[in-house]
Amino acid sequence: xxxxxxAFQVAIVGGGPRGLAANEALVARRVSGARLALTVFExxxxxxxxxxxxxxxxxxxxxxxxxxxxxxxxxxxxxxxxFAEWANGALPDCGADDFPAxxxxxxxxxxxxxxxxxxxxxxxxxxxxxxxxxxxxRGESGWRLTAGPEQHGPFGQVALCLGHQPVRPDPQLxxxxxxxxxxxxxxxxxxxxxxxxxxxxGWRGRTVAIRGLALSMIDVxxxxxxxxxxxxxxAPGAGxxxxxxxxxxxxxxxxxxxxxxxxxxxxxDAVLDAVYDLRGYEVEEVRAAxxxxxxxxxxxALDVLAQVLARTCxxxxxxxxxxxxxTAAAEWIRVEIEGPSGEHAxxxxxxxxxxxxxxxxxxxxxxxxxxxxxxQVWRKLQDVLRExxxxxxxxxxxxxxxxxxxxxxKRYSYGPPAHSAAEMLAxxxxxxxxxRAVDDPDIRLVDEGWxxxxxxxxxxxxVMIDAVLAAPDxxxxxxxxxxxxxxxxxxxxxxEKLGARVSATGRVLDHKGRVxxxxxxxxxxxxxxxxxxxxxxxxxxxxxAHWADAVLRAADxxxxxx
Length: 562
Known about the structure:
Layout: E1 8-13, H1 17-29, E2 36-41, H2 83-90, H3 102-118, E3 124-129, E4 133-139, E5 142-147, E6 150-155, E7 157-160, H4 171-183, E8 186-189, H5 193-200, E9 207-211, H6 215-223, E10 231-234, E11 241-244, E12 252-256, H7 270-274, H8 280-293, H9 298-319, H10 325-338, H11 351-362, H12 370-380, H13 382-390, H14 396-413, H15 418-430, E13 442-446, E14 449-454, E15 457-461, E16 463-466, H16 480-487, E17 507-509, E18 515-521, H17 536-539, H18 542-557
Parallel strand pairs: 1-2, 1-7, 2-3, 7-18, 8-16, 9-12, 9-16
Antiparallel strand pairs: 4-5, 5-6, 10-11, 13-14, 14-15, 17-18
Helix pairs in contact: 1-3, 1-18, 8-9, 8-13, 9-10, 9-12, 9-14, 10-12, 11-15, 12-14
């Protein structure tokens, strides 16, 4: 009597959205009947959603894309539809132009996870280990992983589907941690939001500084205002708001960043957003330019990209009534490449004035600047950028240059909802949100906590919120598993301050570019090999599908995927 072949053992380290997508891809693309034993390692209580999209977090934390841009495909296993379809029933008050709470997306992802587990076909098992993996060792029979009190394996394939990982604190944060231990001031990170909400209830009358001026700062701002009983109401003027205090707020909120430039909000609705849509031939021109750029040296790559982007943005700007649109776009992009952020002449204005101008552009009340239009066009090109970059083996220096350009553009392409910008302006007018030290202040440690000084004045804060998310720098990552794999030579950075070297199918590559058998990595820690990973849409992208195909080929052969 013949015995059935043993199931192919696959470990997925991380059960958030990317881990969910990896499981779905394996189950859906399995056509040969190969037996699969899937083991998911996820310590968070809600697999599928993960901590970033925790369904239990405050509803004040919102996505930075509207419902119509959450382009998650329907679940291939379990019958859960697209997010927009789900939201139509589960969130009746949330329209296509609305920005849903991250908790709502978490509920959707949690339902996909539950549907997956209920719908596993014969020959596929899924086991959840509620611990983080802290160590890995590769032997002749495969990978063995240590999680909690036990060792697991051997696995023919291990996929690292890791989200935000801890990093070694920078010198500034190390000094601040030592300082608060001596003076009794408060230093917290923006997340988890539950901790912040609880602590904020006791900060009435205190001055709270926020390190960072991007999306996480907006989350903190809302916790410190609406989360404490305040409310926004309509004010005279299109899209204007007024803040009504509850009396429980801090005395003032002091955000700051290296350049003091606020993020530009996205167009307020689909009609205004469509202005920046690209024509078919423009998309193909950009695709061809990117395909050329990823093979060139850094300066040449950026030059090729700048030329095609200026033509496209010029056409948009000219159509919106800005004379010499192509010239204005070309000049703006040149300055952006040579000295991003604070070097633009148009930015040499008070931050509140910059933000008000951005909001008018987002609401269609003002002709967009070259920078605003370029940023929105760049946002529309993200899918093409990923398709080309992620499937290429880009030279390290060129990868650094292109990733740097994309990161610099995020103050536009990853901007907040227009409504959030209106809230910021209302809080500035109220005096609660204080921008006197917003632009790279000098920070001294004092008995009260911190003294922030800038050209516009100074103020002391007894609470500091770190709202800066660590970059995916492999060398700074302090997670035990990642640090061990780095020390063992399995993970090797693409370049300084970037993530690990991986192939177009997510296979980990060592320092000589050789495949590390049975080990894959998808997500933030692969930045440099991929161009971006922070959008939930990225979790369900082409890299995950290619990875699943390779794993299933290995399962058919009964060998470690390589």
